Automatic annotation (TrEMBL):
Keywords: Disulfide bond, Phospholipase A2 inhibitor, Secreted, Signal. InterPro entries: CNF-like_PLA2_Inhibitor, LY6_UPA_recep-like, PLipase_A2_inh_N, Snake_toxin-like_sf. The lineage of its organism: Eukaryota, Metazoa, Chordata, Craniata, Vertebrata. Residues 21-101 form the Phospholipase A2 inhibitor N-terminal domain. It is found in: Secreted. This is UPAR/Ly6 domain-containing protein. SUPFAM superfamilies: Snake toxin-like.
């Protein structure tokens, strides 16, 4: 009988240990602390997410901790540049509950080196905005056109700009979100070469032809 009882407890303990608790909080600074909450079915890991938005010389920074599904865990960042020095980037890191306070404590630097490509650029929380043009930087080689709608705020978000191919793929397949939204439309296309570069090339060709005529 004792052997049967021990075997029963051994099979029961993994089930009891499967109930995961994670620290849950939301803050507009890196100091995000809160109480622990029991995770729901399908949420098998703790996570900490960071969102940073730079617009009009103002930087908004938020940190969120809570339960998450490990299926969506990734070390990659969502990055969209929609103006000169204006961008949105977001990332999440899955972690065990005892390590979440230390994990993901800093942001990787933003690569501001222009790569010779350009995209239409726009960011609006109310109505479609006339797109400007932004120079893509770093590994941004795709143009993003994103429209979202949220029921709880009854607002649409219009976002156009440069981004990476992986960010486009993650947004299109629903794995990643820039904002929590009820409806969204995501279009991506390869970014075009900078018109400035094209202009320089045409100028060089014209100068070469002129040189030949003068000869």
């Amino acid at each position: 009988m004792k052997i049967l009882l021990v075997l029963f407890l051994c099979t029961l303990l993994p089930t009891l240990g499967a109930f995961l608790e994670c620290e849950t909080c939301f803050a507009t600074s890196s100091n995000c602390t809160g109480g622990r909450e029991l995770c729901e079915d399908g949420e098998n890991t703790c996570a900490i997410g960071i969102t940073e938005k730079s617009q009009g010389g103002k930087i908004e920074f938020t940190v969120e901790k809570g339960c998450h599904s490990s299926e969506n865990c990734t070390s990659r960042w969502i990055l969209v540049t929609f103006g000169q020095g204006e961008f949105i980037r977001k990332g999440a890191n899955c972690c065990m509950e005892e390590n979440c306070s230390a994990a993901f404590s800093h942001l990787p630097p933003v690569n501001t080196t222009a790569n010779g490509k350009r995209c239409p650029a726009c960011y609006s929380l109310s109505k479609p905005c006339p797109p400007a043009v932004v120079n893509c930087t770093g590994s941004e080689n795709y143009c993003l056109d994103l429209t979202t709608y949220t029921l709880h705020t009854e607002k649409r978000i219009y976002l156009k700009g440069c981004t990476t191919e992986s960010t486009c793929a993650g947004l299109q397949n629903g794995m990643w979100n820039i904002v929590d939204t009820d409806d969204k439309k995501v279009d991506c296309r390869p970014a075009s070469q900078s018109s400035a570069s094209s202009g320089s090339l045409l100028f060089s060709i014209f100068g070469f032809l002129l040189f030949i005529v003068l000869l």
